[in-house]
Every structure is written in structure tokens, then in C-alpha cells.
Design brief:
Length: about 625
Amino acid sequence: MSGSSLPRARRSAAMAAWLVGCALTLAAVTPVPVPAPAPGPASAPGPASASASASGEAAVLGREHAREHARLRDAAKGAQGYPQSKRTASLAAHRASQERTNRAFADAESGRFAAYFPSPDFGVHVAQLPTGKVLLFSFERVEADPTKETGPTGTVGRTNAGRGYLWDPAKGTGAAAFTKVSPPVVLMPDGHYAPRPAPFFCAGHAYLPNGMVGVFGGNVGGKGGSGAKLSFVFDPWTETWFRNRDMSVGRWYPTAVTGADGRQIIMSGQSERGTGTPTPVVERFPALRHPVPWRPFDIPVGLSAERLRTDAPFRNDYPHLFSLRDGMVYGLGRDADQQWRFDPVREVRTDLPRRPADFRGYGSAVPLPAGFRGPDSVLVLGGDPHDPFTYRLSGGRWTTERPRAFGRTQDDTLILPDATLLTVNGALDTRDYGHGPFNPRADPKYRQVELRDARGNWRLGPAQRLPRGYHSNALVMPDGRVMVTGDELQQIANDPDIDDAMDGSIELYEPAYLHRGARPALDRVPAGELGHDRAFEVTSSTPGDVARAVLLAPSTVTHSVNTSQRHLELRITGLRGGTIGLRTPPSPADAPPGYYMLFLLDGKGVPSVARWVKLGVR
């Protein structure tokens, strides 16, 4: 029987016995001097004594055994400061209040939260892969008490490390559905040069045309959080990370977006000099001297990025970037006066009008569906707990749009297959859910989703299990459900077993369209690449039910920043038996090359299960 399946009392006793055994081993082999008591209140050992202790343990127990020993000590301290009973009671209370709240909502009108289950990762970063699996990555926690900073933001050395997992929905929701996909081991320029899985958390990411995920930046540690020059690609086909040449500058909290040519534009992020030093340098990956990775076996490894002639002097991190139908990249900063349009071909930047609202923190932004063409406008929402209004940039002008029920930050807004919008997650501010920072108590309103119809009207919907603010995320899956995860503070505060290996949690939301009758069928799509403005055919065993065909780009999202979202209607050109004729979007500017989820919808907006198609011909 594994340790995780033992009753808590037996498992705790076993852990205690193991630690005692280690202590006896240390005592038997190495005489341990007893230090004189320090004056004043008790305090943690200083860096020198902690380092000496760790070195002594490593010499006797071995490096990995000593690291596990230290991890268990840290976990025990976190459990004492915030006991398991408190976490268990909190989770039970959230479940009960969720059930009470959601009795008022009909599934066919507002959807429902249908599943809640443990995850081995916090989901600070998530990406829907064209294999159907979901990539989650973040960091190894350094603290189990949610009233303290749990991540290694300011940590220098080996414990400042990243981790990654794949979730396969086809295998269900248990531990067996997750596979560990650790990033490459690196040596960070932090003075320690201790090998550890790359600390790529709080990076920026976007898709390449071959379905791979480019990940740029990360955390070196110290200086309030300093930027790493790291550049990686995750290959969903081999489920492997590959490292590329470092960027020219460090980036912590950067943003990346895929342009019409399939290359990725990277902007902003705190530099290697530490927090308060956002870099204005703009880079492109891969550099023009390298071909764009196009086929699944075109693995970018050792490739370089290149600096653009223009700069992007954002004062704050994680700007929203969107590649719209005119081929330009729109950079929408958090400061109202930092709204720019970038030409990635001519490498120039031009000013856009000042946004009507003042500074906005972590809030979402969505390129609005525009029918058969690519998006030409963006809706900015959230980021200010005192402002419920939404703001639209279209044709170089800002307009104030209909408000949501209340202001919130840390929210995630998604385009659904039927072209409606869904907002999940949210908080008052970073680490504050209405009762002060690092306080797991939360205002219940932040747990309710909001729904925007085709006319732009918003209404509240059902409540999710946990409040999820900073580092929360969500994405649309190929079966039309929405995966909700993230926010390590709330996940740790509501962990049903803080001693096991499942640190996080995932919730699944079923939109209303999944409760309005049978789905249309999408049986077959072309296996090869589809050119732009080209006719193609799909087959369906329910052709009479099909009213619309839609391409929905997959999401890769973090910190309320989702640059990859895109929704396009496809022209239906004919119907012959079970064969449906369709036409792809006009150009790569309308729909950048890469993998898309193709949905067929009926007249009530009920979608088929999506099938993946690849847009763009090399």
C-alpha cells in the first residue's frame, strides 16, 4: 500500500518515524554540537547555519535524501501554521455554499459546474494542446501556509524551480490522468549555479504553427523577482521540452503573441536587474534567419530570437497583445496612456488613443468575434475592482461598453464556440479577495461567473467551488467544456490532503449549450493542412442539424493574459448527403497559421465535439 493511501494517523506516524530514523542516522555518524541559545526571541537559522545543516545532511544521507528531508520539514511547518482541519472545513463550506447558490440557476440557461478534482500542479500556466491534453506548469512551492508567499519569487538557489504536468481528459480525473513533464535542468546565473528544473514560472507563451508552445522568460530569484533569459518550446507530439538559445534580455512577466507569419513577438517583463526594471526590448522568435517550425517533426532546439528595431516601453508587466486582421500587433498596456500598435514587418510603433479608464491591474481582454473575418476589435475588461464597465478598441477609437455586475481583477474571460463570452475567477486585488492580502476568506461574489450574450449584455451565473484570483486560469476544451484552475493560495488553503502530491485542483464548467439537447456530429475532417481562402469538406452523420461551422483557437493563458484566443465563422458552401462544404478564413492575418478546434453547431448553439484542423500551407 502506498503512503498516500494510508490513513492520516498512520501516514503521520510513518513520516515521524522516518524523520526520527534519519535523525538517529545523523546522530550516529556525525557529532552535532548544540549551539548556545541566541539572545532575544527565537528565530530561524541564518543562511550560514542553514547551509551548514543542509551540507551535513547531504554528506550523510545523500543529496536527494537530504532534499526530501528538508521538504518534509518545511511541509510540517506549513501544516502546523495552517492545520489540515482548517483546510478541510474550508473546502466543505465552499462546497455547501456553492450548492446553495447554484440552486437558483437552470443548467440550460446558465450552465453548471459539474466536476471538481485534485491536480498535481497549481496551473499558473495552462495550454490546450492539439493532442487533446492540457499542459499545466508552475513552480515547486516553498511554503504550505496560504497566509504566506507560497512561491519561490524571492528565493535564490535550488528551491527556485519549475515543474510541469500533462492532464489527459480521456483518462478521467484521477491521479493516473496526469503525467509529469519536468522542464530541462538548468544552471541559473544567481550566484549558486545549482542545477534545478528551470524556474520558468511567470513567463510568457504562445503557439507555433506546428502546435508547439513557445515559453519565454522566468524567475532568477531575488531582487523582488528578476527576469530569466530562458527560451523553451514544449512539443505536444513527443511530450518533451526543448531549450533554445537565451533571449538577449531577462524577462519576468512578459507577453508573447503569434503573428500572421507564425513567428512569436515577445514584449515587456521585468529584466535581470529585478523588479521595477521592465525591459523595452522587443524580440521575435525564431529570428528571421531561421525557418518557422511548421511540421510536427520540425523541433526548434537551439534556435535564437532577434531584437526588433522598435521598442515597447511598457511601465508595467504583462501587457495584452493581439494580432488582428490588419496584420498589426496591438499592445494594450495596463496604464491608460500606453496603448500602441506595432507593425512587425516594418518594425515600427505608433500611438493609439488613451484608454478611457485609468490604470488597470490584472484583468482580461478578448479579441471580439467578427464573423468570417479575423477580429478587428478588442474588449478590455476587469483589472479595476471599482469599475464594472468594459472598453472596446475598434478602428483606432475607444468606446465604453456595457458593464458587468461588479468590478473584479484577476478574472479570465473566454470566447465560447457559440461566440458568447464567459468570465470566471476574480478577486478584489492581488492576493486579496475582500478581506486583506494573504487572507483566504473571500467575498462570495467573486465565485460567480458572468455571461455575455450576442447583444453585449452581461448577467451573473453559477458559482465555482473555489474563489480563484491571482494566477487563476481557464480554457475551452475540445468537448466544449471549460477547465478552470489556478491560484495557489486558494488551492493550498482548501487542499483536502496537504501531505499528498496533489497540490492543486481543477473545476469543469459545462456551458448552457451542453444542456440544450443532442449535439450535432462531426465525424471526419481533412487530415492535411488547409490553405487560407480554400474550400474543404467535412462529414457529419447529422447534416440536417448543422447551422454553423466555427474555428476556435486554443488558449494558452496566464495572469489573465490570453493572446491566442480567436473565433471565426466558416462559410458553408454546400451540402451533399453527409458531406458539408466549407471555406477557410481569407488570410493568415485573419487566422494565423496553426491548429484550431473546428466545431459544428446547430440552430440552438449546441456544438459538436471539436476536431482539430491545421490552418496554413507551407
